Amino acid sequence: MHLSAPAILVASRSHGETAAIARLLTEEHGLIAAYVAGGRGRRMRPLLIPGNALAVELSAKSDSQLPFARLELAESRAPWMTEPLPAAAIGWASALTASTLPERNPYPSLYAGLDALLTAICHAPSARGWLSVMVMYETMLLRELGYGGARPREDEDFAGLLEQFRALHRPIRDHLLAATRRDVMAARTALGQRLARMVQEGEET
After folding, report:
1. Which end is more exposed in the chain, N or C (fewer Cβ atoms within 10 Å of the end residue's Cβ)?
2. How many angstroms separate the CA atoms of 78 and 75, rounded?
3. Are residues 109 and 146 in the same domain?
4. Half-sphere exposure at residue 6, Cβ-oriented, CA atoms within 13 angstroms
């Protein structure tokens, strides 16, 4: 394997004393796990933030070997990780993607959908501007992985969008994440609670 591609970092974990294993979503090659030398160091840590857009070079001697990755930052989501609601949304979207997609299966529409969702979370003036995109992305994941899913209703107010978001909780839990050992759904529950408080308080920011 030798490839260069744009990618979205959806997960990262420590490996050994200084390295990290990054999980990267690419448009043409799907989800790829890769070894990042020095991933725990000062220079690389800012790159390994969920949601970051990266330019990636991957190399491996065989398709079965974990590839080595060289990363360059294309767009950082770090500024939004200090704000509780955007951070919760980015964290959930990234964890959902990392936990559900099979590796090295291309899903170009999901790559584009996740990129659009992250852009909306970071740049929409309020949560209403990105919650509809979140619902569309989750529905797209269900469809792409063979579980159907009703087309999201458009032109909903914020409370209506929240109801659509809640309605997707069970199919995501029972289908997409049924075989996941760790409790990924806890991130979605926490996000839903934050959104519900906004409705109660009459806010959408």
Report:
1. C
2. 9
3. yes
4. 10
CA pair distance 71, 73, nearest whole angstrom: 7
List 15's β-bridge partners, or say none: 19
Each residue's pLDDT expressed in tens, for the chain with a length of 205 residues: 789 999 999 999 999 889 999 999 999 999 999 999 999 888 899 999 999 999 999 998 877 789 999 999 999 999 999 999 999 999 999 999 999 999 999 999 999 999 999 999 999 988 989 999 999 999 999 999 999 877 777 767 888 999 999 999 999 999 999 988 778 999 999 999 999 998 787 755 4
- 36-40-45-47 Cα dihedral, nearest 10 degrees: 10
Residue linked to tokens 């951070």 = 87
Q: 85 and 70, same structural domain?
A: no
